Amino acid sequence: MKSIIIYESTHHENTKKLVDAIVKKHNVETASIENAESIDLPGYDTIGLAAGIAFGKFYKRMEEFAAKIPSGSRVFLLYTCGNPSGGYVKSITRTLESNDVKVMGTYGCRGYDTYGPFKLVGGIAKGHPTEEEIYGAVSFYDKISRGE
Ligand SMILES: Cc1cc2nc3c(=O)[nH]c(=O)nc-3n(C[C@H](O)[C@H](O)[C@H](O)COP(=O)(O)O)c2cc1C
Description:
Number of helices: 4
Order of helices and strands: EHEEEHEHEH
Bound molecules: flavin mononucleotide
Shape: globular
Helix content: 25-40%
């Protein structure tokens, strides 16, 4: 299975930790969102989109990139967020599914967040993603790679 994860992890590289752990165990290519335009997406069996959450959605650049994924692709989603209130994949999933892109699964966990007022209190979700959460991302990808 040829697989690539495209990531945008600009706040504290929290999401990148999940990606790096997956890459350590699996034969997966990676590319940052800056280099995503040049990727031959139809050449991959699965495409991972990995990003932090801002204002209730995947980072804007990733949300926009999702609209360019070719119909018929198989995509999985990875994210980290300060406050896991849910609903963060709604927008990107809608974009993907409206283009007949299959969303195979989603993994999300908390990530250290010092945005705006949280900075004043030393941030929230300090210490996240934890080892356990990172391991959770690897287990999630194990299943994706087995087609489960
Ligand atoms: C501009 C901005 C907006 C954010 N908005 C949210 C949000 O709506 N919900 C949330 O749970 N976390 C929010 N966060 C926290 C990040 O999603 C979280 O820290 C994430 O782990 C950052 O991932 P990264 O280090 O991979 O970029 C926001 C962070 C920033 C910088």
